[in-house]
User: What shape does this take?
Amino acid sequence: MWENEITIMKNAVRAAAAVAEAIAASMTRDDARLKQDASPVTLADYAVQAIVHRHLAAAFPGDAMIAEEDNDDLHDPRHAAMIERLAGLLAAREPGWSADELVAHIGRGHARESGRGRCWVLDPVDGTKGFLRGDQYAIALALLVDGRPVAGVLGCPRLELTTENGDSRRGWLCLGDGRRAWAESLDGGATRALKVNVKRNAADLVLCESVESGHSAHDVTGILAARQGVSARPLRMDSQAKYAAVAAGLADVYVRWPTRVDYREKIWDHAAGVVLVESAGGLVNDVRGQPLDFTRGRTLAANRGVLAGAGGMARDFLRMVEEHARATLP
Assistant: This one.
């Protein structure tokens, strides 16, 4: 099931990853700026969103799309040179790109309804700060059907995984279709199955969390880890590469503890990762143990934070976090 969709997703994300890395190799200070919410956006965000939306629109013209970036300010004449530059970069790789088409495809992600029918959800460069630092980021694409994530792809150009033969490679597509999870190297030369770990000793659990303390409360996670007897060093990564780490067995638990009472997670920050971990045999809920509800539009309005984990002692840790959340969060 979803074979055709997975093929289109792979082609789109693989093409987008190549462009994102090419932009990263030649970026200047002028290629990144702050949005109104003080989060960064780069040329790569716009390029990736345009490429992925073009692939999806050609294959599934009737489907809705929700994406992080918008094209509202790209009509401003001050950005004309940037748009022309991006259109030229894309035209060198795929025929037919123009400045107008670029802006139009970026603007396709404005759907507000995620709970009915088919809806594609995209974070073009998830972990933009990691992208800018030369660390982890992910191109995160998922398909929702009636508000349920059914297929997901994470393009992780800087993630290192071992192949079936035990060789280490950098740059992977991590995929889940609800039944299985697997990874394919971005160069097409290797594949491997993804399966969560099952650890019996709490001390050995590897917790994964955001690099940025503004994204997850590290102090709370540290207290809870100590309470459970976890002694392994946490794995801190940008982006939904954390979900890939859990699915691949590099980490056992991913905790995103709320840092603000009024904040609600964006669906593009989690949809693809949720499919991946669940397809790899793991479990994903919010920190109070409630299933993530993707039917509320562009945010997880009914949820607080996110918890993802594997089996064995990881499940015990998840239950302990959920109990703490129900007792302490408003």
About this structure: The longest strand covers residues 148-162. The chain has nine helices and 16 strands. The mean pLDDT is 93.
